[in-house]
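Example 3.2
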Amino acid sequence: MAPRILSMPLSLLLTGLFSLAMLVPALHALAHDDHSVARAFFYSSVLGLVVITVMGLAINGSRGVESGGRNLAGLFLGYTVLPLFLALPFYEGLETTIFLNAYVEMVSALTTTGATLFTDPGRLTDSLHLWRAIVGWLGGLIIWVSAMAVLAPLNLGGFEVTAKAEPGQSAQRLDQFRRAGSARRISRASAQLVPIYAGLTGVLWVLLMIGGERPFVAVIHAMSTLATSGISPVGGLQNANAGLVGEGLIFLFLVFALSRLTFSSDTVTAAQTGLRNDPELRFGLGMVAGVALILFLRHWIGAFDIDEMQNVGQAAAALWGTVFTVLSFLTTAGFESAAWGAARDWSGLGTPGLVLMGLAVTGGGVATTAGGVKLLRVYALYLGGRREMERLLHPSSVGRAGRAGRRIRREGALVAWIFFMLFAVSLAVVTVLFASFGQNIESATVLAIAALSTTGPLTQAAVQTPINMLEIGVPAKLLFCAAMVLGRLETLAIIALLNPALWRD
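Structure, written as tokens:
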């Protein structure tokens, strides 16, 4: 029975997964006597399961083409078409918005972007907040599993930096995945990663409750942390009860978005394994320390100008708020520390929105829930640039790195540069389109970066006046959805879908 289910197209598997997930907010709403919301989720769940059953019986016995394009296309359909189904109970349960807004909300949650059109948490019931968090959490799980089962065999999603084959083609180093069928790859990846993902979420949930957080808020913040979606039912961590303890716990679990080697070993990039030798983790932590120090010195100089240097308490709060917020935006979660506002009050300086956008564009680790360009690609560009500078001084010098290091420094840096250029072109095009739809240049830039880096909270944190997503217009909302899908799947994966060789048997 299980092999037959797993042999179904990936888009149908995802629909069935979310149909079952709808029962959770349905039961939650029923327990709180919110019968209209409970009916909306229950009826949608039944509808989805019936449709999946009928389609499963219709395609029973027919063997699909075992190609990478099939699963990659399934992911694309999952991010574009599936939110139409996910938005149905949200739209019926809310009753005070148009369907397009519900669709944008679901695309934002599924891609772990976390941008919300409903900035007032009181407008949504707890069950609707729970549904947003569940969609975002499952969206993060999909990224974890698909990275191993779909993107890795095709050398996409960051794997192309270290692989020997071209992006969109199989490599011999992943032969165990190449020989296995797609159903077996998905089941193997799920069996390995789902317990880790769920276990980490459960541990953080319990720790947040111990820290003083309400169970409902704690579970949503735990799911949003592991998925780096930044979804909160109370408008952010500054309104949570856990305070500094909760932020410290979330800080520790955000490290899982800096490197996949914190929970898996399928992205080893060096001859010497282990987190101590992982370039992504070291590079990410170095960025957090360096950027946080620069921002703290900025606030320190501002406090010096207004004679606030003697306030040690505010200085310590400013340092913590800076470190936490830098890591949060680097991992594209977008949580703001409650002390982030204290840092601005201490120095009298505004929000460094350009720095936050730069961190989001850099992004977290390859094959994690984080978005952006990814740390491994930035590291490859750094190695290539450093080697070229060495050759300017010593043209006959020989690089000291091993075979893996030379691969990253040469071919990996070239592919990373190509991806970075594609990202820059996409950013420019999306920004121009937002501007043509009536947004000023600042808002257009923030919206483009927030969508392409899957860091939705930038729309509120990176500008002096938060962007009202409800008022940006229908064309801009549709463009925002398209940019979020492009940022989640990445440009190379979209280009690979157009490659005829990807669809061959």
